[in-house]
Amino acid sequence: MSDSSVRALLVGCGGMSGAWLGAAATLDDVEIVGLVDLDADRALARRDEYELSQAQTGTDMVRLLEELRPDVVFDCTVPEAHTHVTTTALEHGCHVLGEKPLADSMANARASLEAARKANRIYAVIQNRRYDPNIRRLRRLLDSDAIGPLTSVDADFYLGAHFGGFRAQMDHVLLLDMAIHTFDAARLISGADPVRVYCREWNSSGSWFAHGANAVAVFEMTDGIVFTYRGSWCAEGMNTTWESDWRIVGERGSVLWDGGEGIHGESVSQSGDFRSEMSPLTIPDSAPDDRIGHHTGLMREFIDRVRHGGEPETVAHDNIKSLAMVFGSIDSASEGREIAIDL
Ligand SMILES: NC(=O)c1ccc[n+]([C@@H]2O[C@H](COP(=O)([O-])OP(=O)(O)OC[C@H]3O[C@@H](n4cnc5c(N)ncnc54)[C@H](O)[C@@H]3O)[C@@H](O)[C@H]2O)c1
């Protein structure tokens, strides 16, 4: 690819597109050449808000793909539109960075992966919570073998989130729209992939969502690690962070992470008595080569791979393993039995 800027068409100018346009504005080798939305006024509003007077706007993605010939498409549409937007962009020779979740079904996810393979283009998902400095500090601690091989990872996610909008009517709202972040984080933290899941999903009394605002799931992961998840989007009070509250247990110690800067751990300094003697762990800082920076950090990595080759960490053929945890949970909850995760 040449030294000139990467030309980007952003599709879907709703709430999240602001984070994308803000991130793109900080990258001096990305030019937003067009903005698409089914609602023409939303595209115009984003163009004015981000002072993108050079960008064309419209409701017809294919027309703008043909006229502008962008290098990349940023897909910020709703989950049901991700596969159509992605495959259309790939067919027009574009690399795609898309919002999570990768797709609204495993079949659609596989169709997008196949389209990326055929087009020989990158398709990556903005799994931005991986690019949080604190999860990278946690990962660095676990990589140092501070608590030995991991045995279990537990995540609690409790928020009273009054969104309105498309989420209010969405089926499996917690699992499909939010748990993807927590499940993906569990893969990053554990370094393991899912094998089996048993899940119970329900919509508690008083829920302001139409379906599935609560879920509990138990995953068997590779290396014999067990990952448990308890989540609710209609829990008023005593909320966790968006990143969840975590307990990670290894053969020689345990670590707690509050989803923010609070990481605490202990490892065995002497065993032999009823309870082992424990010593507090020293928690590492971020390091310069950590993948951090949220949306901007991930977009930076994607653009670098588009320009120079290689794949970003959140490339879709890896991210589909996190999505499989979502759909495995949904299938388990619907069928009332444990499900083998279909990778
Ligand atoms: N990464 C995160 O932390 C995070 C946070 C919130 C939302 N999201 C994800 O971002 C995506 C968008 O969420 P949002 O809150 O911005 O939704 P939104 O409803 O505010 O915006 C979506 C926009 O896409 C447009 N759109 C829908 N289908 C389209 C199509 N086929 N072509 C062109 N435009 C189309 C809609 O008109 C709307 O303006 C979702 O996938 C959501 O899960 C991610």
Describe how the helices and strands are arranged.
Blueprint: E1 6-11, H1 17-25, E2 30-36, H2 40-49, E3 56-58, H3 61-68, E4 72-75, H4 82-91, E5 95-98, H5 106-119, E6 123-125, H6 133-143, E7 150-158, H7 173-190, E8 194-202, E9 214-221, E10 226-232, E11 245-250, E12 253-257, E13 263-270, E14 277-280, H8 294-308, H9 316-335, E15 339-340
Parallel strand pairs: 1-2, 1-4, 2-3, 4-5, 5-6, 7-10
Antiparallel strand pairs: 7-11, 8-9, 8-15, 9-10, 11-12, 12-13, 13-14
Helix pairs in contact: 1-8, 4-5, 5-9, 6-7, 7-9
Bound molecules: nicotinamide-adenine-dinucleotide (NAD).
Can you describe what's shown?
By secondary structure, the chain is of the alpha/beta class. It has two domains: 6-125, 3-Layer(aba) Sandwich (Rossmann fold); 131-289 and 324-340, Dihydrodipicolinate Reductase, domain 2 (2-Layer Sandwich), CATH 3.30.360.10. The protein contains nine helices and 15 strands. The chain has helices spanning 17-25, 40-49, 61-68, 82-91, 106-119, 133-143, 173-190, 294-308, 316-335, and strands at residues 6-11, 30-36, 56-58, 72-75, 95-98, 123-125, 150-158, 194-202, 214-221, 226-232, 245-250, 253-257, 263-270, 277-280, 339-340. A nine-stranded mixed sheet has the order 14-13-12-11-7-10-9-8-15, covered by helices on one side. Strands 3-2-1-4-5-6 form a six-stranded parallel sheet, sandwiched between helices. A hairpin with a 4-residue loop joins strand 9 and strand 10 (226-232). The radius of gyration is 21 Å and the shape is globular. It starts with 5 loop residues before the first strand and ends with a strand.
